[in-house]
Amino acid sequence: MTARGMQGFTLLELLVVLAVLGVVMGMAGLVIGPDPQRVARQEASAFVQWIQHARQQAVLDGQALGVRFERRGYRLVRRTAQGWEAAGALREVALELHLDVEGSPRLAPADAPQVVLASHDEHTPFVLSFERQGMRFATVTSDGFDDPRLER
Predict the structure, then answer these.
(1) What is the CATH number of the domain that holds 144?
(2) Is residue 57 part of a domain?
(3) What is the pTM of this model?
(4) For 33-143, where are the alpha helices, taking DSSP H only?
(5) pLDDT for 20-40, tens place per residue?
(6) How far apart are CA 56 and CA 63, in angstroms?
């Protein structure tokens, strides 16, 4: 063929280049790490399911439960004659938690929960944010009566 007939690429060559680019971009995504927005949504959704279960448990047992928040996790606590004691393991999250209870940020006392789940199916109103480096990625809100919901 002449030099004039050799212009451009074949369809097979273009497909191979696109496949290689796809593999390289996929590997780059794995190296960079998980998307914080997606992780926050997953963590917030898991929290909503967890607290719904805890509310049901408080009603069925006829005993108030509480949720104790820490910077990187939360746990269920139960009221005893001696005070509040852990009723479950700390559920760690990959992001920072910021809790706002009844309109003001609330720090965790030594053993008391920040959110109380009453046996009559009411609970402390709250706003829980899932953040990383000061950037909010997901928020769970509750008015104290209805199930907590993930804000979009």
Answers:
(1) 3.55.40.10
(2) yes
(3) 0.73
(4) 36-61
(5) 988 888 777 666 666 788 888
(6) 11
